[in-house]
């Protein structure tokens, strides 16, 4: 809505919006400008949310005729239908080299007094990760609150968990006959508790996932405050609820917003995360978002928002194992997450060609209850496990080179170990050539530093961004695979067989949803260390210092591809490096008007742009698709005639004050088939916050296969 047209008789825009909706007459089955008409009973027009910071407007329950009347109102800019979205540690903190002695942790006071808003499925407030032992009073800038509700009262908030709210009016309008399982900020799924504790959980000793990953759990910013905004419900997440949560978080005074969900398949002007994050950026708040879990296909990335941080997921250098010992003395360390300390001692080992596909419960039922069966590499390990789980076999060995671990959220539901094809051949040979082959198994093994990492996770969505491909997305990569963090003890964490359900206060989850809070936490630490930096400057510092190399000193690879380097479309600038981000030297900053200049270059209407910017104070006098961004992307195909692209960039010196002169020299490794030049190649800065510009030109011809 255009707020400049609000009559003076109204005391606030909230009253004005309600008056507009009340004036609409309904003559048909209710629907909404945001809600599916098929899901709702008849009712009068109703305002669900009125927005202040994230959007100048409201979401409402309207019939088609009411919507048509509303669109004729002189203050109506545009209206969109409701859309539904999706959701997308003991070692990862060490893997990022955060430590109490040097770098970002001590420089930021562990994030003390920074407020992080987490928009997700709520929180389990009793978790030890949200204890406030030794925390100072809540910062005076905090304007939020702690809502009471079902199984949740205000006393459950404290000096760590300082806020908890829920947003479900959009969900209720879409599902009016559905009774919510938990109508409060309490988490019943585990996703929100996991992400909140990853970003800012307190130090908790002696945690593990059924013996795996034992150690001390803590968040990236362990002294930061957490405010939880529940917008994810058991039947999904809706755009009006997401936008209301972002709007409230900005009003409450958060410094960083972490969003591990998305509304996919919509343009920026219909995307609540894009709309809300623009408002957050205007108010000095960085919004960090997950890239999605639709990899490894290109062009599947979500949250490719130019003014938000988009985070891909990578692996870490930790392996969960089961130890397989053969009767010939050969010992193999394979992958396993069987959630018990079972002893499989000298059990008969069986390899049968007819059974080895392990895809028929009828055939597998012929295996004896005192046998370990061997399942051949069919590329279907998960299906094989599902087939075996209800059978009476002692244990199973799976041969696979496919990275199955990140797809097994609840572990392995029976004594089973996954080994690679090389080891598999030796096991099969032993079973086939030995008169009485046997094997033993041990579980709950955890090893650190034994694998090359990080690798770009197989599942992490790849760019270019469908919503806008002119900015290279994702921005960077953070740990996202098998992350241990707080969980909901009232839900399923693992199973044994079909009948034994196990719960846990801490669980291992994988996804870009887990990577996002790692980056959100680093952003919070940087905000504490550099309180005057803009959200764009913080994002720049994280991107320009990200590491493109793994722990072996070689380029980061694709998961499961030992020789295939990961593309920037998979990992962005590389693995986030918190300690280097503390002192980036130079940052690429941008103002809200710079982002508007980018929007002006897109093929969108004025009303669509106003949905994002909310204000006519911005202009299109300097339209440009060349945003001052810390990365570059040049897109072309065989039809492209001009294969030269020049980028203009301005950098700001944020190095230490008092340093007389600082010199930077350009160094480049050009992609195959291209030539990259920088002018000037040397920048000399004589004072802090001095700005200088350069041009980067990419001239591309044909790749090594002779194609454009």
Automatic annotation (TrEMBL):
Residues 2-86 form the Inhibitor I9 domain. InterPro entries: Peptidase_S8/S53_dom, Peptidase_S8/S53_dom_sf, Peptidase_S8_Ser-AS, Peptidase_S8_subtilisin-rel, Peptidases_S8_3, S8pro/Inhibitor_I9, S8pro/Inhibitor_I9_sf, SBT. Keywords: Glycoprotein, Hydrolase, Protease, Secreted, Serine protease, Signal. Pfam families: fn3_6 (PF17766), Inhibitor_I9 (PF05922), Peptidase_S8 (PF00082). It is found in: Secreted. The keyword Transport does not apply. Gene3D superfamilies: 2.60.40.2310, 3.50.30.30, Peptidase S8 propeptide/proteinase inhibitor I9 (3.30.70.80), Peptidase S8/S53 domain (3.40.50.200). The keyword Protein biosynthesis does not apply. One of its GO terms (molecular function) is serine-type endopeptidase activity. The active site is at residues 120, 191, 513. Signal peptide: none annotated. GO terms for biological process: proteolysis. Residues 111-549 form the Peptidase S8/S53 domain. Residues 552-575 are annotated as: Disordered. Its main location: secreted. GO terms for cellular component: extracellular region. Residues 626-705 form the Subtilisin-like protease fibronectin type-III domain. Belongs to the peptidase S8 family. PANTHER family: PROPROTEIN CONVERTASE SUBTILISIN/KEXIN. This is Subtilisin-like protease. It comes from Carnegiea gigantea. The lineage of its organism: Eukaryota, Viridiplantae, Streptophyta, Embryophyta, Tracheophyta.
